[in-house]
Amino acid sequence: MTVPILSVKDVCASYDISRVLFGVSFDISPGQFVTLLGRNGMGRTTSVNSLMGLHRIDSGSIQFQGRDVTTWRPHQIARLGVGLVPEGRHIFGNLTVKENLLASARAGKDGRWNLDAVYRLFPRLAERASNMGSNLSGGEQQMLAIGRALMTNPSLLVLDEATEGLAPKVRGEIWRCLNELKKTGLSILVIDKNISPLLLLADRHYIIEKGLIVWSGSSDELRANPSLIESYVGVQ
């Protein structure tokens, strides 16, 4: 039996007195591409923030690579091998593309990702290497955010709203990138509302509704049940 690289078990989380997560559980196996689907306000980002140590949970457990990281700080979880591409990107606008990438550089276990590797994945970043982060387009900023996360040489890449607000052509470039990353054996967790490409890329989907995982299954199973997408994600 394959041991999950990430195991989230019965996680409950709140903001002040308002409970947001009510026992969320999901697993990601090594090399697996997984999505967390649902409408806005259902607990997707809180789940990501919880597993990254950015939001302290009320109860439950989070294990990464066999280690209990439930109470770990964000920098400790990142060093263990989780790379986050946050909603809103949060790149350094006052640094160049190259400086943004080097700021997060970490050799990791195999050192696969360095400047040259990121530039091969995103040639546009190589062309804009000396440009300030604040001068990039939204699509370029998202590429930079992904590249910055890869420079930490993660074992798991987490993308919160991977293509939100991007033009169709740029979204296609992001999906191409994620497909290439999947081929390398990198474990990936994606939150996004663009379901069609995820049905082609992902191995498994989890749907969250009001802080609970209400369904999980493969792309084939989700494709065979379009009413699930309409009911829980809000698209047809």
Overall description:
The protein has 236 residues and is of the alpha/beta class. It has a domain at 1-78 and 189-236: Rossmann fold (3-Layer(aba) Sandwich), CATH 3.40.50.300. The chain is 35% helix and 25% strand. The chain has 10 helices and 10 strands. The protein has helices at 44-51, 74-80, 97-103, 115-121, 123-127, 138-150, 168-183, 195-201, 219-223, 226-232, and strands at 6-15, 18-28, 33-37, 59-64, 67-68, 82-85, 156-160, 187-191, 204-209, 212-217. The strands form 2 sheets. It has a 6-stranded mixed β-sheet, with helices on both faces. A 4-stranded antiparallel β-sheet has the order 2-1-4-5, covered by helices on one side. Helix 3 runs parallel beside helix 6. The longest helix has 16 residues, at 168-183. The radius of gyration is 17 Å and the shape is globular. It starts with 5 loop residues before the first strand and ends with a helix.
Provide the CATH top-level class of the domain at 1-78 and 189-236. Answer: Alpha Beta
The N- to C-terminal Cα distance equals 36 Å
- How do the SSEs run, as a string of H and E? EEEHEEHEHHHHEHEHEEHH
Task: Summarize the amount of helix as a percent range.
Answer: 25-40%
**CATH H level, superfamily name of the domain at 1-78 and 189-236:** P-loop containing nucleotide triphosphate hydrolases
Indicate the CATH architecture of the domain at 1-78 and 189-236: 3-Layer(aba) Sandwich
* Radius of gyration using CA atoms only: 17 Å
Order of strands across the biggest sheet? 6-7-8-3-9-10
How would you state the average pLDDT, rounded? 93
What CATH calls the topology of the domain at 1-78 and 189-236 is Rossmann fold
Number of helices: 10
Please provide the count of β strands.
10
Beta-strand portion reads 25-35%
Question: Which structural class best describes the helix and strand composition?
Answer: alpha/beta
Contiguous low-pLDDT stretches (5 residues minimum) are: none
